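We were asked to recover a plausible sequence for a given structure. The inputs and outputs are reproduced exactly as logged, with field labels preserved.

PROBLEM: sequence recovery
POSITIONS: 367
GIVEN STRUCTURE:
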């Protein structure tokens, strides 16, 4: 029996794996159904991190996109805004350097709790664990059913490269980061783009990029090529998408009809990544899993959540630099249950990676 099984070999799974090692836990394994960083490799070729990487370790500040102390994607990759493929290479390097116990090409089929242990069905066998950390991420679960006819759209998560898309006029549904990224790259291919959003995220007055667009996206929005090629339509919800022969008709709830010869691009985000184990969690009012102060299920002791699905009150941990702050919290909780002192985890606090006091979260910039 393992002390811990981590499910997912992405940023959350690899990062919390390093934290488990730092806590003195050695009897654990990381299960990944494809390979380390697989979701990042599936990003469109042109898509880059919106959070900048910079090798600031020498002055005691960790690279925003690092998942482990002493590492820097910027230094390793020579890139400030790495692509998904490059970031996957960083995660593989971290895995190799820390010699993490990884099982790739291992699909989790079913999990159940039997007494005080978890039984995890993988392929043709069952492994057991005292604790499970769900770190499977969300990218491979795109939202596809937001309105009638959404099956006629092409989700951003299924696009390998924007330069390979045929056509001259594009409609993008969703004005979040992925929608703006698609619009930006299509604009630089000389395409005309109409981007529709039910709100107006490019005018949200918040310094928290979880609530509005990042400064990286806002800066790109001001480039002449973007302004010339992209039309932004806000406060517009989609009623339906219909395909009429070779023409796609996008109907809005405002009663407008927009026509295009190219399948609309759906930038609707992703389903929550814990669907396989949803029954092990109570839900918050917003549908996200209800967690205790250690990111443990309030319904199933021993089951923890790591990654972009973590929520506490109104705090959203959807970026790597946010959810990595909870790795040490999870590792400390598990180490305590195993009677391990986990003293090395205090180093995480020095690097801004040990957020166990949520009262200091959510501070807005004054200017």
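RECOVERED SEQUENCE:
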């Amino acid at each position: 029996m393992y002390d811990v099984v981590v499910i997912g070999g992405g940023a959350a799974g690899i990062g919390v794996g390093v934290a488990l090692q730092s806590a003195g836990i050695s009897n654990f394994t990381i299960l990944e159904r494809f390979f380390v960083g697989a979701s990042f490799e599936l990003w469109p070729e042109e898509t880059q991190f919106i959070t900048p990487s910079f090798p600031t370790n020498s002055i005691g500040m960790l690279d925003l996109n690092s998942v482990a102390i002493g590492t820097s994607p910027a230094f390793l990759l020579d890139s400030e805004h790495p692509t998904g493929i490059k970031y996957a290479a960083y995660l593989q390097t971290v895995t190799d350097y820390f010699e993490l116990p990884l099982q790739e090409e291992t699909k989790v089929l079913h999990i159940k709790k039997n007494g005080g242990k978890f039984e995890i069905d993988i392929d043709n066998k069952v492994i057991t664990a005292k604790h499970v950390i769900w770190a499977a991420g969300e990218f491979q679960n795109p939202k596809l059913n937001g309105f009638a006819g959404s099956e006629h759209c092409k989700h951003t998560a299924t696009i390998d490269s924007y330069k390979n898309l045929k056509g001259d006029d594009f409609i993008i549904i969703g004005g979040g980061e992925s929608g703006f990224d698609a619009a930006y790259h299509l604009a630089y291919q000389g395409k005309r783009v109409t981007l529709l959003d039910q709100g107006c995220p490019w005018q949200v007055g918040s310094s928290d990029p979880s609530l509005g667009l990042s400064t990286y996206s806002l800066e790109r929005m001001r480039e002449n090529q973007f302004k010339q090629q992209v039309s932004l339509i806000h406060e517009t919800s989609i009623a339906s998408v219909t395909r009429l022969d070779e023409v796609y008709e996008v109907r809005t709830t405002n009663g407008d009809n927009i026509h295009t010869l190219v399948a609309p691009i759906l930038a609707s985000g992703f389903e929550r990544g814990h669907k396989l184990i949803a029954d092990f969690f109570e839900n918050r009012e917003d549908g996200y899993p209800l967690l205790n102060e250690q990111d443990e299920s309030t319904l199933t002791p021993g089951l923890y959540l790591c990654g972009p699905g973590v929520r506490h009150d109104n705090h959203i941990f959807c970026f790597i630099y946010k959810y990595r702050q909870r790795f040490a919290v999870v590792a400390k909780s598990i180490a305590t249950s195993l009677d391990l002192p986990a003293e090395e985890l205090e180093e995480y606090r020095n690097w801004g990676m040990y957020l166990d006091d949520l009262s200091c979260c959510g501070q807005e910039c004054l200017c």
